[in-house]
Amino acid sequence: MATERTFSIIKPDATARNLTGKIAAKLEDAGLRIVASKRVHWNEAQAKKFYEVHAERPFYNDLVSFMTSGPIVLQVLEGENAIAKNREVMGATNPEEAAAGTIRKEFAENIERNSVHGSDSAENAQIEIDLNFTADEIVG
Ligand code: CMP
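^ thats the input. predicted complex w/ adenosine-3',5'-cyclic-monophosphate below
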């Protein structure tokens, strides 16, 4: 198995409820190392750019409003099979379909306010990391 990096966001619904530490602990308990982390508050242009692949989806405008509604925590996670492992720990996008013990099952409010984002492929992980971090902000 290869060591990989993936990109993670702790979303505004989670920071509002003071869940940053609990979510980070679940990631670390799964063997993922947080090799970069910063708390930011995106403006509309940043949220639109990040989610531009969803621009034609009916939930796009609501998603942009939600992601700019409060602080978020951007992270780079490193570990064996990090992309798949992070998705496993997060659980399904819709918390009603998420497995027991996953972040979304325990913390998400609904399909939009679903507490975390994680890259869905190695290609997207690289794009999302490059969009949000400079090389010197990632310390393994
Ligand atoms: P995320 O994994 O960040 O990718 C896109 C986001 O859009 C998703 O998590 C949710 O926060 C949000 N979203 C809202 N409605 C939907 C939907 N019907 N299907 C998928 N994602 C949705």
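The chain has a mean pLDDT of 98.
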